[in-house]
Specification:
alpha+beta, eight-stranded antiparallel beta sheet, extended
């Protein structure tokens, strides 16, 4: 009887070498590397399942939400590497099984798998749409029957209108659908190999490890840049305030803002008390005080104040073609609205051109005047750095006149914006909507009719913003309310600080660590920093200062008082002990000790 061999539960060395190139994503010399055909239900750009399929005349399928921004940014086919525009895309009308969610043939109801031969028949007119069938239905009902009518729409088609989407027997088409031959995959592979060769460590990573290392490097550089920007932008104050002369001759006072004074933050302390308790390198600190707020925390507090104000902004944009009124949603997207209104108030948009216009889509502008082609963002935001997106289900790209932020990816908003000519549902939750044109829609329709360059979509006639007039600006009101609230909070903290620091008349003078009387300022206001005798103490910045060891001090005083009373009692009874009972020869009892405070640690 022949012994049945069990299935092998391991890989041999030869099989491991053969599959190594597939795991790492690098090309290997020889036929062992194999090909990586693109799955039928996946986009050729993102390599993930598509939801709104479109294809090229070669039969390569993309997701419309992924290929459209790619073409607008690069203008090239990510698979073949040649020039391509959105006009070359063909929308695929595919039938989907409602129960399983898979794509299927609308005639035979047969599911499209990775081995099914699939064709698409272009519809003329309009020419940019195609119905998708399995090849068996097309061959039996069209080719054999000599029927040139589409099986669903009934429109006539020619042989050139048939596009092969998947055919395993066509070697040329399989080579075109091979992921290793895609242009964007090859460029990424070459970039990784170049980086590995130029790396001084000469460490070869896999694709996954390389992506992780690149992400860590980007985060590290981002933290370093943020720290540098924060060091430059933090107000340098002297005794709590820095006076800066403005152009109008008034004196603007910058104040230090702490975390417990913000509208949206919690009481974040500096950590000096806990650090000094466990570290010998830090000075002894017995009071927890709030730390200085970062610029990002201050901006979040201002945006929350603007959101609570519940007011809309209104801006009138004067162009060389007419004026448009834009309503700004300050109560829904406060950060984006604040950026737009502050830039408009400073006149940053005056003289900027609308540099891109696509009919039935949008017109884009807001680029900084004088910025060249090398300047990718065309100017930064009002905070001189990109800021995060703000999405809300109440604000969508529905209808004409929607004003939204232009970006180059998540969290890259600057100053450029665009106005839609029609609904653009595929831009929802990708671009932050912050306004709407409520007056002058005829001017917008007039701008849509201006002819543009076919390659760059730049208007052939100059369209620019001459000036902006702010009719309603709730941003300045919110900033004034926030400033007044912070000053009031500082005054409350100052009064609380005075009430918690008794004077020398209450506690006595001359002892170490005791407070002296607060110094008087001109005008009768006491100084917020009292003078300390023989022992320094940090200022109390929080609402309720916590002194470490204050109960131990009271226990130490009580212990000393009891020791004095016991000693005096022994002295009074000593005379009777001499003439009476004999003195004990036992050793005296040990002295009782207490912990005391932490000053000697």
């Amino acid at each position: 009887m022949v012994k049945r061999q069990k299935e092998k539960q391991y890989q041999s060395a030869r099989e491991h070498r053969a599959n190594q190139s597939l795991r790492s994503g690098s090309s290997a010399s020889g036929s062992s590397a194999g090909s990586r055909p693109l799955p039928f239900d996946c986009c050729a750009l993102t390599l993930t399942p598509y939801t709104t399929p479109v294809c090229t005349p070669d039969g390569i399928i993309f997701d419309n939400s992924a290929i459209t921004p790619h073409l607008m940014k690069y203008g090239t086919d990510p698979v073949a590497g040649r020039a391509m525009t959105s006009r070359d895309l063909i929308v695929l009308n595919m039938d989907r099984d409602e129960s399983s969610g898979t794509w299927q043939c609308p005639v035979l109801n047969r599911t499209f798998t990775n081995r099914t031969k699939v064709v698409a028949i272009r519809q003329r007119p309009p020419g940019n749409e195609a119905n998708v069938y399995c090849y068996e239905a097309y061959h039996e009902l069209n080719v054999k029957a000599k029927n040139n009518l589409d099986l669903v729409s009934g429109k006539k088609f020619a042989k050139d209108d048939v596009i092969i989407l998947q055919d395993l027997e066509d070697q040329a088409h399989c080579k075109l659908r091979n992921i290793q031959n895609f242009s964007h995959v090859r460029s990424l592979r070459e970039e990784n190999s170049t980086r590995q060769r130029t790396d001084p460590g000469n460490v070869k990573h896999s694709v996954t490890a390389s992506r992780i290392m690149e992400k860590l490097d980007r985060e590290k550089r981002k933290r370093e840049r943020a720290a540098e920007d924060q060091a430059k932008k933090l107000p340098k104050t002297n005794d709590g305030a820095d006076k800066k002369s403005s152009a109008s001759g008034k004196t603007e006072v910058k104040i230090q803002i702490y975390t417990d004074e913000l509208l949206t933050s919690v009481n974040l302390t500096s950590g000096k008390a806990s650090g000094s308790l466990t570290s010998t390198a830090m000075d002894i600190t017995r009071e927890n005080k709030a730390r200085l707020a970062t610029e990002e925390e201050i901006i979040k507090s201002q945006c929350e104040q603007l959101k609570r104000l519940k007011k809309k902004g209104m801006v009138r944009v004067f162009t060389n073609r007419g004026a448009m009124d834009i309503e700004v949603h300050c109560d829904i997207v406060p950060r984006t609205a604040m950026n737009f209104l502050l830039l408009a108030e400073r006149g940053e948009y005056d003289g900027s051109k609308f540099h891109r216009s696509i009919a039935n889509f949008m017109i884009q502008g807001g680029k900084k005047p004088g910025s060249g082609k090398g300047d990718k963002d065309g100017g930064s935001s009002v905070w001189e750095k990109p800021f995060a997106d703000e999405f809300d289900d109440r604000l969508t790209h529905s209808g004409s006149g929607i004003v939204s932020m232009a970006n180059s990816g998540p969290g890259t908003n600057g100053r450029q914006f665009f106005v839609t000519y029609k609904s653009c549902a595929h831009l929802n939750r990708k671009h932050s909507v912050f306004g709407k044109v409520v007056g002058g829609l005829e001017i917008l329709r007039r701008l849509e009719q201006i002819p543009t360059d076919k390659e760059t979509d730049r208007p052939l006639e100059m369209v620019k913003i001459e000036s902006m007039e702010i009719l309603e600006n709730p941003v300045n009101e919110a900033l004034e309310i926030e400033r007044a609230r912070i000053l009031k909070r500082k005054e409350e903290k100052h009064l609380l600080d005075r009430s918690r620091k008794p004077s020398t008349s209450e506690r006595g003078s001359g002892g170490p660590g005791t407070w002296s009387a607060p110094a008087e300022k001109p005008g009768g206001l006491p100084s917020p920093k009292p003078v300390v005798k023989e022992e320094s103490a940090d200022d109390i910045e929080g609402p309720s200062p916590i002194v470490i060891g204050k109960y131990l001090k009271d226990a130490k005083k009580a212990s000393k008082k009891r020791a004095k009373q016991k000693k005096s009692h022994n002295v009074d009874g000593g005379a009777d002990a001499v003439g009476g009972a004999a003195v004990s020869r036992l050793p005296p009892p040990p002295k009782k000790t207490t912990f005391g405070d932490f000053s000697g640690w």
